[in-house]
Amino acid sequence: MVKHNTMSEIDLGFAEECEPKWLTNANFPSKIGGKPAWLHLGELPATESLRCKKCGKPKSFLCQVYSPFEDDHNFHRTIFVFVCRTESCYVANDNSQCVTALRSQLPLRNSFYSEIPPEDGVAVPEVLPPKSKLCATCGCLGTLQCSRCRKINYCGLEHQRLHWKYHKIVCSADNTGCDSKLAADEIVREIVFPEWEICMNADDESEDDAEEDTNKTEVNEEEQLKELDKLISSGKAGQFQSLPESELEKYTSGCEEVDDKDFRKFRKECSKAPRQVIRYMRKGTPLWIASKDKIQVFLDNIPACDICGSPREYEFQIMPQMLNHLQDSNLDWGVLAIYTCPKSCPLPDGKGYTEEIVIKQDIVVENDKSS
What we know:
This protein is α+β, with helices and mostly antiparallel strands. The protein has helices at 157-170, 185-188, 203-211, 215-233, 245-248, 261-272, 296-299, and strands spanning 11-16, 31-32, 60-66, 76-83, 99-106, 144-145, 153-154, 196-202, 276-280, 313-318, 335-340, 354-355, 357-361. It is built from seven helices and 13 strands. The strands form two sheets. The chain has an eleven-stranded antiparallel beta sheet.
């Protein structure tokens, strides 16, 4: 279980392979992809709250970061992030309507999880919502039910139609053979990203760890940083993949157009730990990938907390390196900065999740018409 507390230093998150049994909600994971490991199980987010405001399609679960505070009502606390996968919905540099961040928290004594920690080396099985069903395709709230077997639930018609390609083979009125946990890989992949654990380390620790890596790993990370540098400079960070050197040459143009002090600082910090996918520093400042000029209007107008009225503050950012783990060329961002209630105030009765604020910053070169 990864548990990182309030710290003044920067924590860096790295994507690591992990057995699925360790990524269930009862183990309080930080992770990329798969299905959400929901924290509060009494009131799950409504289906409509996780639809893209532009295309209307359901968003996909991107990642979650387990980040408890040192107070009674935040003994367990997780931020969940969802993204639209429709390329045409994205606009460069905005307070993104295509990305949703949700906050959830629980006290030590709660209705869902034991207050007694598990034994070392023992993974705790998933705890299911006592009153709600989950979508068999994406793992979000499933309010629709298969009319034939009445055993499988869905968040909406889109995921029901997609899952039916598999489910029709095993579905039966007497419920034999139906299993909500089963789905064809090619179907799920359209909705669910590959699953990775996010391992958090302090910034200085990550540098020490990097020195202990094998020569092969160091070479790979150096090559990946060069790829990221070139692709960011061309305005296509989302294409950060393991490309051959011959293919990378076409991305070298335009570097001088983003060679500002913010970009140089971004590259310098990334060079210390090229694989970082999360930078966490509550009450800190984001590591911007370029000048803030094009997003300043959003930064100046971050709304206060809907519940307590406190001005939201920066908590963590999602790095472009995460794109390399998602296997989806439709997605592209420079930085996703998450701003949350600094008090992580208690949620009203009957509410398990509340929306926080995401600001998306991108690299945009002069010949990029998307701006």
